[in-house]
Structure formats: structure tokens, C-alpha cells
Structure to design on (152 residues):
């Protein structure tokens, strides 16, 4: 996958979420909730925008994904409706097996963290997204949010 990397995400999806209470504490317990998203392609598939809503959680978000032809990488930009701000982007690409891995830096609870997004299990009707954080100076990744997408 290259410039067509997020074409699979076009359209409407149901999303099962599983999220840690504390993004850096794997023992903090998981919360499960539903969501739904609608995505749309632009620029001949080199840009993708989706809006996701989590009705039981009272918030949602918007993701802008942009393909960079010079580097062959995608930049993923997330905005949470609670904060209204654009979080620092993550950048990466899809491997030959269709798995996408994207990395960046951010902060969580006032602490700097490295961020990893991973897309896998991509088919016409399903996909899996995982978010993991590693505290600055640590190589211990904590997977803290998993989304299972199914075609609506």
C-alpha cells in the first residue's frame, strides 16, 4: 500500500473500542464502548478525513490523513472534540503485508511520550487500529486503545 493506503477506510463503519483507564498503566483496567465513523477520500485517495463519534462517552474526533509522495509516508492528524486542538501528528507507512505503523511524540498527563498507531487485519469489511504509548526514555510500549472496525 502506498498512496491508496487508507482507501479501505472510506465509507461508514461501526467501531468497538477497548481503552485503558490510564494510558501508561497496563493494570488500570479496560473500558469498552461503541462508536461509529464515516470517512471520505480526497485528492485521488492521497487524503482521507473521517469523523468518529463515541455516543456513550460524550465526545468524538476528526482525523486528517495525508500522503506525502516525496517520502512515501502518511501523516495522521487527530483532533479530539473535548479539547478542540490538533494533536501532534504521527507519520509512517504501510508494509507489503498491509500492516501500517505510524510513530510520533506527544505528552500524556504532563509527561512526554512516544506514540505508535498500528493498522492491521485490513479487509473490505474489517480493520483493527491500536494505539500504544512509551514513556520518554523507555522502550516499554503500553497498548492503551484498540478499535475493531466493521463495515456499517
Amino acid at each position: 500500500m502506498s498512496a491508496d493506503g487508507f482507501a479501505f477506510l472510506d465509507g461508514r463503519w461501526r467501531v468497538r473500542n477497548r481503552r485503558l483507564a490510564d494510558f501508561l498503566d497496563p493494570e488500570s483496567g479496560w473500558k469498552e464502548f461503541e462508536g461509529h465513523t464515516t470517512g471520505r477520500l480526497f485528492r485521488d485517495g492521497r487524503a482521507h478525513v473521517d469523523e468518529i463519534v463515541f455516543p456513550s462517552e460524550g465526545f468524538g474526533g476528526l482525523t486528517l490523513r495525508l500522503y506525502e509522495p516525496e517520502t512515501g509516508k502518511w501523516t495522521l492528524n487527530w483532533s479530539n472534540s473535548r479539547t478542540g486542538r490538533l494533536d501532534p501528528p504521527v507519520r509512517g507507512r504501510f508494509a507489503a503485508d498491509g500492516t501500517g505503523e505510524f510513530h510520533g511524540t506527544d505528552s500524556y498527563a504532563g509527561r512526554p511520550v512516544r506514540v505508535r498507531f498500528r493498522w492491521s487485519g485490513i479487509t473490505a469489511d474489517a480493520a483493527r487500529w491500536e494505539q500504544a504509548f512509551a514513556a520518554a526514555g523507555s522502550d516499554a510500549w503500553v497498548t492503551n486503545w484498540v478499535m475493531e472496525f466493521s463495515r456499517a
In short: Strands lie at 11-20, 30-42, 47-54, 59-68, 73-80, 90-94, 100-108, 111-120, 126-135, 142-151. The mean pLDDT is 95. The CA atoms of residues 8 and 124 lie 6 Å apart.
